Batch of 4 targets.
Target 1
Amino acid sequence: MSSIYRVIDQYDRRVRDLTKRAIKSGIMPDANVYYALNAAEKAITAARKAGEAAIMPNVEDAVAEAARVVDTEEKYAAARD
């Protein structure tokens, strides 16, 4: 059972890294970025509470969506500058 928590921690670190990138690049106030990161954090919290592997696809999808949104918004921010 501890292996599922290890995987959840990996996703949690990924979201924290995405949050740092968003803050550093100045895109964190953007609603799309904020909501995507918030959804990923909520999915991670739900997975941690449940402790079940069945929830992991939700976490994977939420973190992947957050990464996609941060990457896209960073590109748009770079194009504006």
Note: DSSP finds three helices and no strands in the chain.
Target 2
Amino acid sequence: MRRLIVTQGDTEPASVEQQRLLGKTCPSLYDLRNLFQVNVEEGRHLWAMVYLLQGYFGRDGREEAEAMLERHSGDADKPRILEAFNEETPDWLSYFMFTYFTIAMEISN
């Protein structure tokens, strides 16, 4: 259970890190608002995962939460757990393709 929480929690900030450049090139204010809302939700999910780790998994959970907050998307020394979240998405086409294939893989499993 702890490993699932850590992996899920690690994807939340990774998603925000991948999408951080997209705000500069949003096609409309509507798209910018939606991007911002997605990032807010990802932050809320991260908080929930850290809360669970620290509150219910003792010292190991606290260490896992700390390590999760030290990792960064694309970082050579401390990359995100899932390799897909270490890839750059510098533009909307890259982002759309990333989400398309991520969802397609989930559906096929």
Note: DSSP finds four helices and no strands in the chain.
Target 3
Amino acid sequence: MKKFEDFNLKDTTMAFIEKNHFKQPTPIQEQVIPAALRGKDVIGLSSTGSGKTHAYLIPIMEKVDPTKDEAQVVITAPTRELATQIYEMAKVMTEIVPEIRVRLYVGGRERSKDIEQLEKSQPHIVIGTPGRIKDLFLNGGALRIDK
């Protein structure tokens, strides 16, 4: 079994791992993290509670450049509940690197507030439902994910 140290992660990512008392990667993380860090597309299937979300959030945190004022990652989820769950996990990760902006865009919230927030700054990581993300991107262009 690998250790997180074997992935050659940034100090900030390792700080998150240590802060959360992760001892070693789960099987899904052991398979997904190295491939994602190499830029490969991955599909991972694993049971609930197996660490799937961190399997892709850890490589994302490694690749996001907080000096760029642009969306670099878009994560879609089929439901508001799942999108919110992913967002909450990502927010905890970004506490270590507060320069990384992560935002949640789902239906059932005030669209005007989302647009107002986007006019101030673009998030580095976009998490949401396909309908709201599409709406903010195509209908008005407040969300810029076309780079």
Note: DSSP finds six helices and three strands in the chain.
Target 4
Amino acid sequence: MAFLGKGKKQDMLQLAEELGINATLNMTVPSIKTAITNREGYEEEFVKNLYETIIANGKRLEELERAEKMIRNYWSKIVKISHVTW
């Protein structure tokens, strides 16, 4: 169950949602953990794999967003330079 200490609160909320648990933003991380581990049919290995997938997908999404921001900044600079040279 130590694996539930990884990730962000948003990751844990997504995990709860995937498991059909009604968790809200105003819940504390410990209360979300409790709701997950006390869920009927809780299988630690399944939940661990699902949670690790959610965390990995979140990291990939953050990387993509950073790359998109860099590309937008790059093109913005090119547009500014092209306006100056014309």
Note: Helices lie at 9-18, 29-37, 44-85.
